[in-house]
Amino acid sequence: MAAIEPPPHLLQCFEEKELSQECRDFISSLPRERGWIRAFSHHYQGFWISTMAIQGVLAFQKNFQAHDTDVLLVTPPKAGTTWSKAILFALLNRARHPNPQRHPLVANNPHTLVLTLELNLYNGNQVPDLTSFPTPRLFGTHLPYALLPASAKDSACKIVYMCRNPKDTFVSLWHYVNRAWSTSSAIDSLEEAFDMFWRGVSPFGPYWDHVSGYWKESLENPHKVLFLKYEDMKEQPTTNLRRLAEFLGCPFSPEEEAKGIVNDISTLCSFDNLSNQEVNKRGKGLYGEANEVYFRRGEVGDWVNYLTVEMTEKLDRITEEKFHSTGLKF
Ligand code: PAP
After folding, report:
1. How far apart, in whole angstroms, are the C-alpha atoms of residue 54 and residue 41?
2. Which of 46, 214, 218, 315 has the maximum number of C-beta atoms within 10 A of its C-beta?
3. Which atom of ligand 1 is nearest to the CA of 164?
4. What domains lie within the chain, and their CATH numbers?
5. Where does the record place the Sulfotransferase domain (predicted)?
6. Is the pLDDT of residue 110 over 90?
């Protein structure tokens, strides 16, 4: 299976100078803080959006028309986006790609197979033509629920939300910023990064508002929003794969169960398998970053190796406070 080439406009790097005048005028009116990667984070509709993402966010909000058959994968950054893109792609395309050895995930990083609406598709100056995408169209996004375009909320499209405990999310974000963007990282130390995350100034954060927005929606509208946790997926991948397939209206048939397809997908998308593919060891991502930065340890609880006791207590306390009335626990 050959690698899929991204459209050339995806390879552009986002710098502030590439923003339209209209976008620059707009963001100059927003409160801002220093960014995690280059430039700034802008406070937009209650959430922090980086300079490199904001034009795409505005264009996505304005122009995206969801189809009833669409599947939107939503994640806070570093909560398992790469993994869940792989899982959803494999699940929805299982009839087309039955052979794990010749599967597109062997030659392509999941981010190339499932594009992110605000970062990849609406990033250029033109509204992308999404009509050629096969049904069901599968897209990724990091947008909080409150910021989703109306059609994504009002149509019958399905939303799969994957999140991860805040301590591992933060540690993964810290490593990513340093590994992928060491030359343009705007953050000097773990302490500084922690302070920003804790204050809510993380990409598409505050983290807690992002998570509780989708949690609430999944409780009120369980046929529309499926809420998954990275930790649960790690612990019981096949159980959660079946849940996902049921939710998306494509449950595994008895024949598929008998053939072991659920296990095949779980193994195909596992950290060990994906991180050892040549494309993910040596390939480059859509912005020229090394694909390997999306595969670090892939474990639950790695935060213990990085956070001080004080940081742990602070993060636990705020998480308890924010999620107290929601019933959410990590
Ligand atoms: P993104 O939001 O920028 O796309 P995302 O994929 O969410 O990043 O985050 C990468 C994390 O997912 C890494 O976690 P770590 O830093 O704690 O190691 C990465 O290792 C982990 N990851 C990537 N692929 C998998 C996988 N197949 N199974 C489990 N974890 C994975």
Report:
1. 9
2. 214
3. 7
4. 65-323 (3.40.50.300)
5. 68-327
6. yes
